Amino acid sequence: MAIAEEQLTGTKKSLVDAAATLIAERGFDAVTVREITGKADTNIASVKYHFGSKEELIDAVVANFVSPVNMGRLARIDKLEEAGDFCAEDLLRAFLEPMLSQIKGSPLSEKLFCQLMGRVIGERPYEFPEQVMGQFREVAARYVPAFIKAEPGLTEEDVFWRIHFSFGVMSNMLTNGELLKKVASGKVGEEQLEKTLSRVIDFCAAGFKQGGTKR
Known about the structure:
Layout: H1 10-26, H2 33-40, H3 45-50, H4 54-83, H5 88-105, H6 110-122, H7 130-150, H8 156-184, H9 193-208
Helix pairs in contact: 1-2, 1-4, 1-6, 4-5, 4-7, 5-9, 6-8, 8-9
């Protein structure tokens, strides 16, 4: 497993934690360096000293929350491949459940973490840092052939699209749960995140089980 995770400490950690909270609450573009440093109880120059720019601080926020998820994905597929027998649902659980584990272990509240990850997946206005892109490529190199093994009728292109669609479903679940409750007018209530994630996996698994693209 090649993915490495940076251990943040001191002022650097305070800045990342402060930026993560503010971005989760308001979005990437709305948050200023002054607001971040104010929440971290440090000065504006500390951002340039530790990260170089606001954009590089945002890169650090993304890496800090995404890297453990990708590490979990690789650990989970190691176990599935060692067992040797898996289906699309197993792979989706291995791919999506590490995000739930990260939510549970985060200093952010569940609601804020969900909002942050939803924004990372669905609305980030910058390119992902190369560190994170490299992780995604490493994860894809393991999961794409595994999905093809589980669903032999699919091509590599099919699998990449269906993983992409699954990301979209996960993003919408993380960011728009409150909207769903309002639209449903009481027909959808509060439930444990584990149950909602199971709904996502069931929905996405049905998509993976459809036949490959007709040429």
